Amino acid sequence: MRVELRSKLIDAASYEEDKRLLRIYMANGQLREFVDVPRQVFNDLAQAVSAGTYYVQNIKGRFPGAQ
User: How far is CA 34 from CA 16, 30, 66, in A?
Assistant: First the structure.
């Protein structure tokens, strides 16, 4: 599942439930991948008033990066 986000920091995010893999497509072209992410975190990111703020406060540095 992929969602487009209105954010200066993030263009879009996708989630693979079977792998618990969250992909964050940054506005600067970078791709960041995180594993062991609960589905609710993706849902909350998609519904956040500020996706960038939610990312910084709740995802960045809190989940391991994908190998």
Answer: 11, 13, 5
